[in-house]
Structure formats: structure tokens, C-alpha cells
Amino acid sequence: LNYDASGIISYLKPFYSKVFPIIKKFGGRIDKVMGDGIIAIFSNIFKNRNSENNHDIFKDAYFCCKEIIKALHSFQNGEYQSK
User: Fold this and answer.
1) pLDDT by residue (tens digit) across 7-57?
2) In the 8-state DSSP scheme, what is residue 79?
3) From CA 38, how far away is CA 3, in angstroms rounded?
4) What is the pTM of this model?
């Protein structure tokens, strides 16, 4: 596909609208967006936790990724893929 800047924005907008809320749901914060690449950070600082158990952070990141992959698989006939 060959898009200009506004075409890329229009193409990625539905992708962002699906992925960003899932990251937020699991307590992640978006650090950087590079096209369809997203760097999200998970930290106890971002969530109100009663413990400082770092395993909760890893679980949040893992289940966030799992939900994104599942959501994108069924979103818009699989047009957006996740790796």
C-alpha cells in the first residue's frame, strides 16, 4: 500500500483506537509511537497497588499483549496484525 501522511493517519486511527484503551486497561503508559509500533511502559508507579510485587507488572504486560493480539485478530477482518 502506498499512502501519503494523511492516508497513513486515517489508516492507523482505528488501530490506535483499539490498542490504546487496552494498554490503559492494564495500567500501561504509552512512551512512544512510531507508526504501528508502540512502546508501552508498565510500572507500579502508574497503578495503585497495595504491594510492590513486580510480578504483577509482568502479568499486566503479558495479558495486555495477549488481549491486543486477540482483539486485532478479529478487528476489521484481521486487517491489522500484531506480533
Assistant:
1) 888 888 998 999 999 999 998 999 999 888 899 999 888 766 555 555 688
2) T
3) 20
4) 0.78
Buried-state track 22-46, b at ≥16 Cβ within 10 A, e below 16 = bbeebbbeeeeeeeeebebebeeee
* Tens-digit pLDDT profile for residues 46-69: 766 555 555 688 899 999 999 998
Q: What is the 3-state secondary structure (H, E, C) of 9-78?
A: HHHHHHHHHHHHHHHHHCCEEEEEEECCEEEEEECHHHCCCCCCCHHHHHHHHHHHHHHHHHHHHHHHHH
Distance CA 32, CA 25 (A): 18
